[in-house]
Design a protein that fits this description.
Elements: H1 3-31, H2 43-55, H3 60-67, H4 71-83, E1 87-92, E2 95-103, H5 105-126, H6 131-158, H7 163-172
Antiparallel strand pairs: 1-2
Amino acid sequence: MTSDQVHQDEVYDRLQHQVALFARRAEQTRLAAVGGLRYTMDRAAYLLLGRLEAEGPMGVKALAQAMSIDSSTVTRQVTPLVEQGYVDRVPNPDDGRAVLLRLSEMGRERLHQVRSARIELMAEMVGDWSADDRERFADLLTRFNKAMVLRQAARLAAHPPGPAVVEAVEVADMPPSPRAD
């Protein structure tokens, strides 16, 4: 093994260790977020509400595909959000038998409250970094997340569950674009 290979192996080892620490500390930090418990939200709820805000009302199946998760998982995760008043079930105008999930005004307020606290936390964590370092970190983290999505898509392509799932994986973890209303 060359010294370059040894060095790369050391870098990969540092990366895997830092990612493991990051995952653990991110959860600990979330629980001790700026403003305390009232500004925290379960990760699944945060992502579901964010997707509904970005894309508007949608059915369970469409939301599941957009999030690259099973419909039963979406149903289980959305139920408490409906009970808390963060999500409304509304009639589908195209199919009176079906319902759509829509972010309620209370859900939008809660999502914005939590998002603001998370942004404040990020500013606290990296506020003393240079603007270039913050931008580079955001770019590299985005690139890392995309690599994870592409790896998952490649694995699914090797053992396809169906084209809809592969298509959903390609966009599931990308941040939703803000809606233009």
